[in-house]
Amino acid sequence: MADNWAICPRCKQLVTAELAALKDLHYGTIPEQEYLNLVAKVEQVEETSCRTLGEHYEIGIQDNEFRISYRGACRVCGFSKTFDVKEPVRDKSGE
Ligand SMILES: [Zn+2]
Q1: Residue 68 belongs to what domain range?
Q2: What's the gap in Å between 94 CA and the centre of ligand 1?
Q3: How many whole angstroms from 78 Cα to the centroid of ligand 1?
């Protein structure tokens, strides 16, 4: 299970482009109020439909090593990102 569901940058890009095309298609062809309703729905979809990036992360010290670990993977488009940092822990006398 993911620690967090974030907005996937790739899905967001695709959805934004598709929705922009949808808005262009209807601009001037439907009554103004209907168009404004459509735009409001489009903005809602942009905000909610792209939370598909499952994120797992940990930060802390283990076995004298400071570690930051991140894994993000989209369950829709397959976009993924990993990030790892490990650094030996030194106490003050070692500096
Ligand atoms: Zn995605």
Answers
A1: 4-94
A2: 45
A3: 6
